[in-house]
Design goal:
- It is a single chain.
- The protein is built from 14 helices and 13 strands.
- By secondary structure, the chain is an alpha/beta fold.
- It folds into two domains: 2-49, no CATH class; 74-313, Aldolase class I (TIM Barrel), CATH 3.20.20.70.
- The longest helix has 21 residues, at 350-370.
């Protein structure tokens, strides 16, 4: 058996130290990176943990304390949060290595925050354990570099609180929460639901309004929830700019620091211009450089520069959003940027698969026009549009 004393253990460390050994002993608080998990699983290596002097050991990869109320700086929840896709391997399991590479790429590209288990992360197609594993993986790869806002929407209040407690232990900064889905409930019951979560959650809460998939969150209800300090803001994916502006106008009248994030790429620029804190933008998972640049220009008052970028990304957004099963268009965009996204978690017809192949080619053309390198040869028309890379 090989003993490793490192506090953070990567796949490379294991490869260098283990050789042909198939057993390893780790120190009690060792943190295993996703590449280390892959290495251990692929080689069926048995792990044991050296006991503390008290005769017990703490669980690896779990923070020892829960953040107290009020510790989160709400200023951290500004800018572009990426609702990342989930990458699967050929066995339809989470691809740890490719996910690790993808998350690092997003952070290096300037993303201000990460948003796992959002709609783009197709959380409803993941098991309870997979939802936990995705967030655990991302917190480990992130290592505190940017804030993490994790979706904690579950089928019932009990499981929402269970997931929130798990997130708090592994270092998530706040949770995002939609209204209960499938069964529609009264507005009064909806108020009671969010109030109870706010009273019991160990993490701060961002309300998520997405009426395409759940019932709408009325502004009157959100105003009633303002006294609950755990609820610090909202993400609005209604695709309704007047609704977003009224949200900021009414809720910030009582809570000036109330965070409002837009979830719709097409109105990112006007939303920032009107005072939105930022956005959770699916396209930031494909062109993080452009979306961050758009936010920075809008925030800095570069009206013309931001407007050019806003119009420039519209064709790409529409290509990925329309005509294919969500979020397969966005996963195709990630693939064009050079990542192996793996199989889909939803069934597709032959016609849909053929359409998706056409979409892949068209996405490649759009990205080529923007000045980005794409994977594979593309038969693209010459548009003579100047690239935006490095603007």
């Amino acid at each position: 058996m090989v003993r490793i004393e490192n506090s953070v253990i990567t796949g490379q460390i294991l490869q260098e130290k283990l050789g042909d050994q198939r057993q390893v002993e780790l120190c009690p608080r060792a943190t295993l990176t996703p590449s280390a998990h892959d290495f251990l699983r692929e080689r069926s290596i048995k792990i044991s943990y050296r006991e503390l002097s008290t005769g017990s050991r703490s669980a690896p990869n779990i923070a020892q304390t829960v953040k107290p109320r009020g510790e989160i700086d709400k200023r951290d929840f500004t800018g572009v949060f990426c609702p990342n896709i989930v990458i699967f391997d050929e066995h339809d399991k989470i691809n740890y290595k490719e996910m690790e590479r993808y998350i690092n790429w997003l952070i290096d590209a300037g993303i201000h925050g990460l948003y796992p288990n959002g709609s783009t992360g197709e959380f409803v197609r993941l098991s309870w354990e997979e939802r936990q594993e995705v967030v655990r993986l991302i917190t480990e790869v992130n290592s505190g570099r940017v804030p993490i806002l994790a979706g904690a929407s579950e089928a019932n209040l009990r499981d929402v609180l269970r997931m929130s407690e798990f997130y708090a232990k592994i270092g998530v900064d706040a949770i995002s929460l939609v209204p209960p889905f499938y069964y529609k409930i009264s507005d009064e019951s909806l108020f009671q639901y969010f109030a109870e979560v706010a009273e019991q959650s160990p993490l701060d809460i961002l309300l998520y309004n997405i009426p395409q998939f759940t019932q709408e969150l009325p502004l009157e209800l959100m105003e009633r929830l303002l006294p609950y300090e755990r609820i610090f803001g909202t993400k609005d994916s209604s695709r309704d700019l007047p609704r977003l502006i009224n949200t900021m106008h009414r809720l910030r009248a009582e809570r000036p620091d109330y965070v409002v994030l837009v979830g719709c790429e097409e109105i990112l620029f006007p939303s920032i211009l009107m005072g939105a804190s930022g956005g959770t933008i699916a396209t930031s998972g494909i062109i993080p450089e452009v979306i961050v640049d758009l936010y920075d220009k809008a925030f800095a008052g570069d009206i013309e520069g931001a407007r050019i970028l806003q119009y420039r990304i519209l064709d790409l957004i529409n290509m990925m959003l329309l005509g294919v099963n969500f979020p397969e268009g966005f996963k195709t965009g990630v693939a064009v940027r050079g990542f192996d996204v793996g199989p889909a978690r939803t069934s597709s017809t032959k016609e849909e698969m053929e359409h998706l192949m056409k979409v892949e080619s068209q996405i490649g053309c759009i990205l080529s026009d923007m000045g980005y390198s794409v994977r594979g040869a593309r038969a693209c028309p010459v548009t003579n549009i100047p690239p935006i890379v490095g603007r």
